[in-house]
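hey can u check if this looks right to u? its 288 residues, i copy pasted from the old doc so theres a chance i mangled smth
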Amino acid sequence: MPINILITGAKGQLGSELQEIQAKYPEFNFIPTDVDELDLTKKEAVATFIDTHKINYIINCAAYTAVDKAEDDVELCYKINRDAVNNLAEAANGKAKIIHISTDYVFDGKTTAPYKTTDATHPQSVYGKSKLAGEDVLLAACPESIIIRTAWLYSIYGNNFVKTMLRLGKERTKLNVVYDQKGTPTYAADLAQAILSVIVHSEKTQIFPAGIYHYSNEGVTTWFDFTEKIFQLAGITTCTVHPVTTGQYPTKAARPQYSVLDKTKIKKTFEIIVPEWEHSLEKCIARL
């Protein structure tokens, strides 16, 4: 019997990286979908799809991620980040296992130690609140699910900080970048690999250890230092990066000042080795 894995949000960064490595897993039958193939906000359609395709696992990469736009686009943001998750959870309960991707924005960023999975959540933006609401409905409707919170995601696909900086670095002679927000970049290819390690582990042990996990690359940096490293690796020398404070660079949605994630649980449970962020950034820029 093939193991059928539904990938939602398959055209996004993570969904694209999952498809990139699927050839390494011949025992799995990947079914990538985006809104055109499966609209997650339509409850009956979701239930029918899961039944028809005999889905064993769902990797939910679908999300509304335009953080600043979400402040005005509240209804659509919740529709995708909460209601669609609820539809998946209700349809999957007792039939398919869900691995759902969440975010560091569920925290307020007012700490100075890496966030554990047990730490209190306190989102400061519509996006963060909608993602936390998605976690809540998932665990209520389908408690045997895995949630993986990640942060600062980038890849060779889609729109992300790395690609934006590479473009701006070539277009401009100077850039202002925030230096007082700390976190860890996450290479989507590494996260994709980690997710499939979770499924391989689950198949091997016949145990699906439900709960909340954190995943980002190893290390800590700021947006300013991240940009400096991007330019260094890409050989961009014609653009100078200037450090500015969050106050000097106001955005519509509040960002966590500190969102380093503690990855102890995911590393121990699934025996995952997490690469350093600089090493992964180097790999991504080489691919770009």
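The first strand starts at residue 3 and ends at 8.
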